[in-house]
Specification:
By secondary structure, the chain is of the alpha+beta class. The chain has one domain: Cytidine Deaminase, domain 2 (3-Layer(aba) Sandwich), CATH 3.40.140. The protein has 3 helices and 6 strands; from the N terminus they run E-H-E-E-H-E-H-E-E. Strands 1-6-5-4-2-3 form a 6-stranded mixed sheet, with helices on both faces. Strand 4, helix 3 and strand 5 form a beta-alpha-beta unit. Helix 2 packs parallel to helix 3. The structure holds tetrahydrodeoxyuridine. Tetrahydrodeoxyuridine binds next to helix 2.
Amino acid sequence: MKKIDITVPVEALSYDELTESERALVDKAREYTTHAYAPYSHFNVGAAIGLENGEVVPGANQENAAFPSGTCAERTACYAAGARFPGVKFKEIAVAARGTDGLELATPVAPCGACRQALLEYETLAGRPVPVLLVGRDAIYRLPSVASLLPLAFTQID
Ligand code: THU
């Protein structure tokens, strides 16, 4: 038997330590928490995807009375980017959230499993790592890629 330890490299940064383009993406994700339609959970999530052509595509969670027809912020942004700019590579991603008290989460928000898998598809299409910024009040986590968020991911390619 061989034991394999998988580690996830995470950099915990302050807002000031981010690059200019990262700060713009974080600002957009934070702004889009106000675009959430979350009357059931009252959990407001914003996402922003920076594309290689310089465009930023934002998203916010959209809930629905017919659970589980609603969609997370990350997938809203991800599919909007794919629809608006087909074939354009993803460059970086930021996600922010405000909890039921309306305040930004102190600890960085982390995407759900389904969003990780969806985003991974677009990282694969990009052909290179797409860094992810998980935004919190007290820290911003930078991960080097979507794949690092989803170890042992499902893939059809061997
Ligand atoms: N949600 C997101 O938008 N992104 C995540 O990564 C986790 C959860 C949304 C889904 C639902 O509208 C609300 O947050 C509570 O789960």
